[in-house]
């Protein structure tokens, strides 16, 4: 009986222990699940804060021009302030250069001159590279420099010789070579000049031919226009007479013999025809007097 009771007690204890373990496991699982949920919620909220939270902006270009300028001014002032604080608190040499999108320069330097700081930066950045450069490369660079310097000096001396300067140190052979070179250059210049003049003359001849053809065509059109608009001579005389203009007449010789002759006799008789004797006595209009002795051109 005692053994049975001891087994029962041990079974109850085991059962209670298992129940406690199950409850604790469930509690831990629930707690872990809850922490996971909270972690996910915090990650989502953190992303939202990066985009929409106060003081946190998504790192990309601001599209709004006004907002971009305001942000630039605020961040620039903050950066300049931080640089000043760093130089004062830590006794550091700080140089800051800012160019806006419009090209405006903003700078800060803790030293009296920013150029000194830039020279120091240049020495620290490029001095080590020059020191680490192998001597073979340095020697080749120096030889290249000497070669180029010699070539420049030779070209300058040759230019002075071509201009007639510094000819005293030259020998007779060198002077002959210089003379030959100048003659060759002069021939080349003259041939180029002649060719240029020939080309210009040919161009002018072509232009002259074009102008002659154009003048010929215009003259032909003018002749055709005159023929088309030509007025008969009698029409011109009639229009001039009606307009009261002076008409050009051809002098017609007065003939004593003709179809109409004066009749003999002392009795005044009406005469039909031309009477040169009575032309001055008759009271005839000016136009009729002009006709006396003349015949219009259109009546000939």
Rg over CA atoms, rounded to whole Å, is 62 Å
CATH architecture classification name of one domain: 3-Layer(aba) Sandwich
Cα separation of the termini: 183 Å
Biggest beta sheet summary: 2 strands, antiparallel
The level of helicity is: 55-70%
Order of helices and strands: HHEEHHHHEHE
**Estimated structural class:** mainly alpha
- Could you say which overall geometry the principal axes of the C-alpha atoms support? flat
Residue share in β-strands: 5-15%
Give the uncertain stretches in residue-range form: 1-5, 48-53, 249-274, 278-294
Number of strands: 4
Keywords: DNA-binding, Nucleus, Transcription, Transcription regulation
Pfam families: K-box (PF01486), SRF-TF (PF00319)
Subcellular location: Nucleus
GO biological process, one term: carpel development
Q: How would you characterize the overall build of this protein?
A:
Among the domains are: 68 residues, SRF-like; 67 residues, no CATH class. 65% of the residues lie in helices and 5% in strands. The chain has seven helices and four strands; from the N terminus they run ααββααααβαβ. A two-stranded antiparallel sheet has the order 1-2.
Q: Would you spell out the secondary-structure blueprint of this structure?
A:
Elements: H1 2-52, H2 65-89, E1 95-99, E2 105-109, H3 114-132, H4 135-162, H5 172-228, H6 233-242, E3 249-251, H7 286-291, E4 294-296
Q: Main attributes?
A:
single chain; 300 residues; mainly alpha; SRF-like; two-stranded antiparallel ribbon; two-stranded antiparallel sheet
Give a brief rundown of this model.
By secondary structure, the protein is mainly α. It is built from 7 helices and 4 strands.
